[in-house]
Amino acid sequence: MLTVAFTNQKGGVGKTSTVVGIAAALDRRGLRVLCIDLDPQADLTQWLGLDPLDDVRNVNDAVYADTRGIAAEAIQHAGWGAGIDVIGSTLDLAERETDLSPGSEFRLAKALDGLSGYDVVLIDCPPSIGRLVVLGFVAATHVVVVTEPSAASLRGVENVLRTRDVVAEHYNRKLQLAGIVVNHQNRTTESALRVAEVAEVYGAAVWEPYVPARAVVAAAMGAAASVADYGADGKPVAEVYDALAERVLALQTLSTPSTVEVS
Ligand SMILES: Nc1ncnc2c1ncn2[C@@H]1O[C@H](COP(=O)(O)OP(=O)(O)O)[C@@H](O)[C@H]1O
Ligand SMILES: [Mg+2]
Predict the structure, then answer these.
(1) Which ligand is nearest to the CA of 237?
(2) Which is it for the CA torsion 129, 133, 139, 145, positive or negative?
(3) Model confidence at 257, in pLDDT bands (50, 70, 90)?
(4) Ligand 1 atom nearest to 184, measured from its CA
(5) Is 222 helix (H, G, I), strand (E, B) or coil?
(6) Domain for residue 126, yes or no?
(7) Residue 260 lies in a domain
(8) 38 Cβ below 6 A of ligand 1
(9) Where is each AAA domain found (predicted)?
(10) Contact (Cβ atoms closer than 8 angstroms) between residue 231 and residue 219
(11) Could you read off the pLDDT of 113-157 as tens digits, one per residue?
(12) Do the domain assignments include residue 258?
């Protein structure tokens, strides 16, 4: 199953916004999406209308159980988006970051093994390159790196790409870099400079269109809603996510040409 991990070592760059935006776009197309929240902060969980404090199975339970296929028991319907399901997170997931027991890197992949019925699985990674990210990368078929047009965020991209290389070499040979999403593009000179830099360094790996900085994204996050619910303000941003969702879907059919190697 097409399983895409969204990542950057840096926080606040738009990983969760991109996952939710693309999930909502896939839902608009009538596709079935499973979102997995791998961040103990549980922003994705809450944006999709779930409460991390609810007494239901979550991703931490699924990983901890070390049981093939158990993730199916942690799936819930999102609070909005008819085709969106979620495996939610909770603060307890932070404990998995320090679980270095042999084989623990494979536990999310093992928990998801045999799962079917989804067109796409989207994994929202925490802002790190630690154990939780490795769990996500071992379970994924593709990595999408999300970056802001800023120097610190671009350093985070480099570090994530090294982690992808290590995971691909040692744990998951199929793991491919799908692309780089540029989020929070604005009209400053710094933004233009860094957008040009990301295009120069990563070339065809950079996905277009870029996601513009728009207040509606933060508003949708705060209201646990879709940007598409925000009328004329939300429409242009929703259309960007629609286009990025097309890039995700293309990974399924064009595995070699649409995936890229950067050195
Ligand atoms: N394109 C955007 N325009 C405006 N605000 C954004 C945009 N993308 C993200 N944000 C806001 O920036 C903050 C960080 O985004 P988030 O998706 O949570 O990042 P991450 O998951 O990488 O930590 C959030 O408050 C979010 O609402
Ligand atoms: Mg996040």
Answers:
(1) 1
(2) negative
(3) very low
(4) 1
(5) helix
(6) yes
(7) no
(8) no
(9) 3-176
(10) no
(11) 999 999 999 999 999 999 999 999 999 999 999 999 999 999 989
(12) no
Over residues 151-177, mean pLDDT: 94
Domain boundaries, position 202: 3-253
Q: Which residues contact 144 (CB under 8 A, 6 or more apart)?
A: 4, 5, 6, 7, 18, 178, 179, 180, 181, 207, 248
CB of residue 221 inside a 6 A radius of ligand 1: yes
R_g over Cα of the chain: 17
Using a 6 Å cutoff on CB, does residue 79 contact ligand 1?
Answer: no
Residue 184, domain CATH = 3.40.50.300
Q: How many residues does the chain have?
A: 263
Q: Classify residue 134: in a domain, yes or no.
A: yes
Q: Identify which of 15, 133, 217 to mutate to test ligand 1's pocket (most ligand atoms within 8 A of the CB).
A: 217
Q: How far is the CA of 14 from the centre of ligand 1 (A)?
A: 4
Based on the structure, what is the number of domains in the chain? 1
Distance (Å) from CA 122 to ligand 2 centroid: 13
| Rounded-to-integer distance, Cα 255 and Cα 259, Å | 6
Ligand lying nearest the CA atom of residue 221: 1
Closest residue to atom 3 of ligand 1, CA basis? 213
